[in-house]
């Protein structure tokens, strides 16, 4: 996309903002500009790295250059003598107190959860694992002093390939072997489904390893007053982290306060209990001084947990008319060297999603988690669901090609029809609502599907060196993680509720406290809209507090498109409780029965009279407490915890047209249409932003990004010159629209939107690329579909774009 | 990503700068810093002193010198792109410079800096090579002119001697009948060229009378596609041009890296040279 195009896109967003200006007085549904942005865009930010404490020291970590080795000696004494160095430590120095980094999701009975010391003591298992550290008066001295630390390693064999890792006689990552866990889900009679099936499609797809690349690198600042500890950290999960720090280190929970100040993105990568967070706490305890660490981008590429990395073997049986009979999925999921917070749960989040929006007679999902000597994998935007959606949506295109049917038509013949909701799928989930027909019809119209197909056919006939490909992706996802009971059944270590609280201040202003922990999602704005409607107060009169366990004391944080669906609803329910308290007080003041009161536009009115009290007046009355009914507390403040009964299931249809230059292999996205159904929308501007970013991130997996390790287990993609992130200049404008089928599982009717774009877009793009090349005998290109892979696929179809 | 310790000097005159460099063989010139600073931060370079030439006024600016355009070494890419003297006198330089990295880098990075860095993946070395430009260097012992053909010695190595500073580049004006194009093949707007082709083509009565072709990232240093240049001489536009461009990868030794293997780069060189020559010849 040219810079001019980028300008046009920005203009379109502004226009749609104006178009969407609502006529009603309702705040929910308005494209409000974000309250957060003035501060963020004018530099009045509180990133962890901006923070300073009196006497603050800086820590830098020495990291293993070996993928796998025994540590035979660490000598930090050379570093201790250097100017400005306050202390230097090796893993031995922490061994007695550092515990093991937690894994909260033992997904199976056979799971092996190896000890995971925050600083390696006797063995390193991936390049980048911390082996020593230097604490100095500034970062520069700390960095220089790292060179003076001596470490002797006795090399052990690297374990890099999942299939080889599982083979007999493979070198072991851990004593117990290289299999982390195995899990299986079966439903229906798979043998019957495949036996005699007119069509059986058998494919293997590779979900390459990705590096999450949040805009703000991680940073941790820890301080102590000698008794208690405060940790400022760039995290998505201050609440979970506080509990886990207490469990790992033995520091009592009530002595730990975790603050997530401004956090610049996470995409799942900051849903983690990191070595540097634990070590930060231990360092401040050892030294009695504040200690700060900020990673560099290259350090982050090595040591922020990675995402994806699966080998998917998928078999699909269908009738001659394209109706799916059965689906069999067999996954290898690369865990890397250790199981981190939810590593094993990530592929399992896809277990019930490979069947997607389709009906079928039988389904089997089997997954093996594998240890390798690489950085551990864990949550990355979509977490298990993009992988599942990719596989099934690629298979639907393969099925269409096999039967010479239009890929949209094959999907129509298999998807759940709107009148069939609620629908319990073959994998056991109950989808509450949806309308795949409506979203798809709208997308086809916006895309100009028939016209593009005609152009495609024309280019094929002419043998045009630039071929057109059209990719379809009709996705759903399960999000709003998660109903606590279902998490319990899945053996997850915690619940999935969320907490919200409302403080009515004496002047009638409102403080909303949320347990969600926004790091770019705009909760301050959206929660203000929800509270403004619920309480009948102006949007401007609401502030939202979050991200500090001393202020928002209770929460389950932000990930899995859960914040609005669970946390937003908790805010709504807290507002309802405020209103009930205010009703009691209003009835007392207005000398009527509570049942005679109507709440309208922020005031209680005695039905049929002009007698009324605003919620602000009632807040003041509660504050002065001069005339409260007997037994009523002097406050309207309320809190609520919401636990959903089901996941939510956003869905949509994404269509992508690509031009593939068959001479060079270069792919250019010609047009992209996304029609998403995320239920009711609180703020269309924020939703549009989430979809834009999500699509960009999914396209990035399809075309650009891949973490590459060499044969010795060294990460080669440690800089942005080697790990390619697309920028606005590399992406087309997106045509977005929505259909709206409210969720029935929550009172707001919302479904969550944080991951949808990422889940939908990757298969849409790869399907388009393959569609362009199919007449040339190509039926797959490995991601990312680089120009070189496409060129090789064209010139040797048998290679299927395998890495040269 | 913290550089190792170094001394910093910001001389007020070119002479002072030359002296500073001459007195310390591990000193490095700091121009726009767009290549050097990443090397420092990754601790791939350990200069003892950085001699910052950013405040030397004589090194900045574009001048029309009749038969050639003189571009001061410290002229930023952005200034080059916006210069009417460049657009009129050596349009190929403007075309290629507009494709260097991204806008932020073009505002900091300098024309001379990217040549002195001698990165074969940089866009400008192949351009000055194709245009037979002359690079001007100063040292304590005086001024010296180095033809582009002799300037690029090896990977990240130029003909500049220790103590020498590149002060500017003389770009010959090619006159009437010439057409130009820079064809850059890269995966994201900000990334280096996997392969780039700089083409200057002269036509007379429909036939190509002369072609000069520089190749980016096809070897340890920027290269001229001499075989193609020779094969294009006297050729009418059409199939023969394509055939001539099949020679574009002759005598190259392209690198293998994460973005491309050598055989693919050779293929790209042929395709992109054909495209660059056709466009330069006014036949897109």
From TrEMBL, chain A:
Biased composition (Polar residues): 13-26
Domain Aldehyde oxidase/xanthine dehydrogenase a/b hammerhead as annotated: residue spans: 42-157
GO molecular function, one term: oxidoreductase activity
PANTHER family: ALDEHYDE OXIDASE 1-RELATED (PTHR11908:SF132), XANTHINE DEHYDROGENASE (PTHR11908)
Taxonomic superkingdom: Bacteria
Region named Disordered: 1-37
Keywords noted in UniProt: Molybdenum, Oxidoreductase
Official protein name in the record: Xanthine dehydrogenase family protein molybdopterin-binding subunit
Pfam families named in the record: Ald_Xan_dh_C (PF01315), MoCoBD_1 (PF02738), MoCoBD_2 (PF20256)
Compositional bias (Basic and acidic residues): 27-37
TrEMBL record, chain B:
Pfam families found in the cross-reference section: CO_deh_flav_C, FAD_binding_5
Keywords: FAD, Flavoprotein, Oxidoreductase
Molecular function, one GO term: flavin adenine dinucleotide binding
Keyword Kinase applies: no
Domain CO dehydrogenase flavoprotein C-terminal: from-to ranges: 180-280
Protein name in UniProt: Xanthine dehydrogenase family protein subunit M
Provenance organism: Nonomuraea longispora
């Amino acid at each position: 996309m040219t810079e001019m195009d980028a300008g046009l896109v920005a203009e379109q967003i502004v226009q749609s903002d104006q178009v969407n200006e609502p006529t009603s007085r309702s705040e929910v549904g308005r494209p409000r500009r974000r309250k957060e942005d003035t501060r963020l865009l004018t530099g009045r930010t509180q990133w962890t790295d901006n923070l300073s404490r009196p006497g603050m020291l800086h820590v830098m970590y020495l990291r293993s250059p070996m993928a796998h080795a025994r540590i035979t000696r660490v000598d930090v004494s050379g570093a201790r003598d250097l100017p400005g160095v306050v202390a230097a430590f090796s893993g031995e120095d922490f061994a007695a107190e550092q515990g093991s980094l937690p894994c909260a999701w033992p997904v199976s009975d056979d799971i092996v959860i190896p000890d995971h010391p925050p600083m390696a003591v006797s063995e390193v298992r991936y390049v980048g694992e911390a082996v020593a550290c230097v604490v100095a008066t500034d970062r520069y001295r700390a960095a220089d002093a790292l060179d003076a630390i001596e470490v002797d390693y006795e090399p052990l064999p690297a374990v890099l390939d999942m299939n080889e890792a599982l083979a007999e006689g493979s070198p072991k990552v851990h004593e117990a072997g290289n299999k982390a866990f195995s899990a299986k889900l079966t439903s229906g009679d798979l043998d019957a489904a495949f036996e005699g099936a007119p069509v059986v499609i058998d494919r293997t797809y590779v979900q390459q390893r990705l590096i999450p690349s949040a805009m703000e690198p991680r940073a941790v600042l820890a301080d102590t007053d000698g008794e208690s500890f405060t940790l400022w950290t760039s995290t998505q999960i201050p609440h979970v982290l506080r509990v886990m720090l207490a469990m790992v280190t033995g520091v009592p929970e009530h002595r730990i306060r975790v603050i997530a100040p401004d956090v610049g993105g996470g995409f799942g990568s900051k849903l983690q209990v990191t070595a540097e967070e634990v070590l930060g706490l231990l360092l401040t305890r050892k030294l009695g001084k504040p200690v700060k660490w900020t990673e560099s981008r290259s350090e982050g590429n090595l040591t922020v947990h990675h995402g994806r990395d699966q080998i998917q073997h998928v078999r699909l049986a269908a009738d001659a008319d394209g109706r799916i009979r059965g689906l069999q999925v067999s996954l290898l999921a690369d865990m890397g060297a250790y199981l981190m917070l939810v590593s094993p749960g990530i592929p399992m989040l896809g277990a019930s999603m490979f069947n997607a929006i389709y009906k079928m007679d039988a389904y089997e999902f089997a997954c093996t988690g594998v240890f390798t000597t690489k950085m551990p994998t864990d949550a990355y935007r979509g977490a298990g669901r993009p992988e599942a959606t990719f596989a099934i949506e690629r298979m639907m295109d393969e099925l269409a090609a096999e039967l010479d049917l239009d890929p949209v038509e094959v999907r129509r013949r298999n998807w759940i029809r709107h009148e069939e909701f609620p629908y319990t799928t073959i994998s056991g989930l109950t989808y509450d609502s949806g309308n795949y027909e409506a979203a798809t019809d709208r997308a086809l119209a916006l895309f100009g599907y028939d016209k593009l197909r005609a152009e495609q056919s024309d280019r094929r006939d002419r043998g045009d060196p630039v071929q057109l490909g059209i990719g379809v992706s009709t996705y759903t996802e399960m999000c709003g993680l998660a109903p606590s009971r279902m998490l319990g059944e899945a053996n997850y270590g915690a619940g999935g509720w969320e907490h919200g609280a409302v403080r009515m201040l004496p002047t009638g202003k409102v403080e909303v406290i949320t347990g969600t922990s926004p790091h770019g999602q705009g909760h301050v704005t959206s929660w203000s809209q929800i509270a403004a409607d619920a309480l009948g107060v102006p949007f401007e009169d609401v502030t939202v507090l979050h991200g500090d366990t001393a202020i928002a004391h209770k929460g389950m944080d932000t990930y899995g498109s859960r914040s609005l669906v669970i946390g937003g609803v908790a805010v709504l329910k807290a507002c309802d409780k405020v209103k009930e308290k205010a009703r009691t007080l209003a009835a007392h003041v207005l000398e009527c029965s509570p049942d005679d009161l109507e709440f309208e536009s922020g005031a209680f009115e005695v039905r049929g009279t002009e007698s009324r009290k605003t919620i602000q007046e009632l807040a003041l009355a509660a504050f002065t407490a001069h005339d409260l009914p007997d037994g009523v507390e002097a406050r309207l403040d309320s809190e609520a915890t919401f636990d959903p009964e089901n996941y939510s299931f956003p869905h949509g249809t994404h269509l992508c047209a690509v031009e593939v230059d068959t001479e060079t292999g270069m792919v250019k996205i010609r047009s992209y249409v996304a029609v998403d159904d995320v239920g009711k929308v609180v703020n269309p501007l924020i939703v549009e932003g989430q979809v834009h970013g999500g699509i960009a991130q999914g396209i990035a997996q399809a075309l650009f990004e891949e973490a590459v390790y060499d044969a010795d287990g060294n990460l080669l993609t440690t800089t942005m010159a080697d790990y390619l992130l697309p920028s606005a200049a590399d992406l087309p404008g997106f045509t977005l629209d929505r259909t709206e089928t409210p969720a029935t599982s929550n009172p707001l009717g919302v479904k969550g939107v944080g991951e949808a774009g990422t889940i939908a877009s990757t298969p849409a793009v790869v399907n388009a690329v393959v569609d362009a090349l199919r007449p040339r005998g190509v039926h797959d290109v490995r991601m990312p579909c680089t120009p070189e892979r496409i060129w090789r696929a064209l010139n040797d179809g048998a290679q299927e774009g395998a890495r040269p | 990503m913290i550089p190792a310790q170094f001394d910093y000097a910001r001389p007020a005159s070119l002479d002072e700068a030359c002296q500073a460099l001459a007195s310390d063989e591990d000193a490095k010139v700091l121009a726009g810093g767009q290549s050097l600073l990443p090397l420092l931060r990754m601790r791939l370079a350990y200069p003892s002193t950085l001699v910052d030439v950013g405040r030397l006024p004589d090194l900045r600016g574009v001048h029309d010198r009749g038969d050639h355009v003189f571009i001061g070494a410290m002229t930023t890419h952005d200034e080059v792109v916006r210069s009417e003297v460049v657009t009129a006198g050596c349009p190929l330089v403007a075309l290629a410079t507009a494709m260097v990295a991204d806008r932020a880098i073009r505002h900091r990075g300098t024309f001379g800096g990217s040549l002195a860095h001698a990165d074969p993946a940089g866009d400008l070395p192949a351009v000055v090579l194709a245009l037979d430009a002359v690079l001007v260097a100063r040292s304590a012992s005086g001024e010296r002119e180095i033809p582009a053909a002799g300037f690029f010695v090896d990977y990240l190595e130029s003909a500049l001697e220790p103590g020498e500073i590149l002060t500017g580049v003389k770009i010959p004006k090619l006159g009437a009948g010439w057409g130009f194009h820079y064809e850059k093949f890269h995966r994201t707007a900000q990334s280096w060229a996997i392969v780039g082709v700089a083409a200057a083509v002269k036509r007379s009565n429909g036939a190509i009378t002369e072609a000069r072709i520089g190749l980016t990232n096809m070897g340890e240093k920027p290269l001229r596609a001499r075989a193609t240049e020779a094969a294009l001489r006297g050729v009418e536009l059409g199939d023969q041009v394509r055939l001539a461009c099949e020679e574009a990868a002759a005598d190259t030794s392209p690198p293998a890296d994460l973005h491309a293997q050598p055989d693919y780069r050779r293929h790209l060189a042929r395709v992109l040279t054909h495209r660059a020559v056709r466009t330069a010849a006014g036949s897109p």
